[in-house]
Design goal:
mainly alpha, 434 Repressor (Amino-terminal Domain), 7 helices, 64% helix
Amino acid sequence: MMSKDKDATPKRGARVFPRNMKILHNLGENIALAMKRRGISQEMMFSRTGISKPTLRKITKGDSSVSIGHYVNVLAVLGLLEDLGKVALDDELGRKLQDIELLNKN
């Protein structure tokens, strides 16, 4: 009889291109700095989020295998979750493309 682990489909992480990994790496560094500035240790973060130390280390390195939900929980503890809401808020390229389309309709 095979164990469940051997029958399970292997977990597939997101494929992130090298040029985009730098952004994740910077995010991880920013999170690590924010924790240090606030005096929040990995133990404190664990107690507030339930995220394991290995996963927290991955987050502070900008690891793409960590779910966005874990990043959200850490950002919430740091008081930075609202910053995530600013992503794509001012979609300058989308607005320009829309304006071009609107101008070409006449």
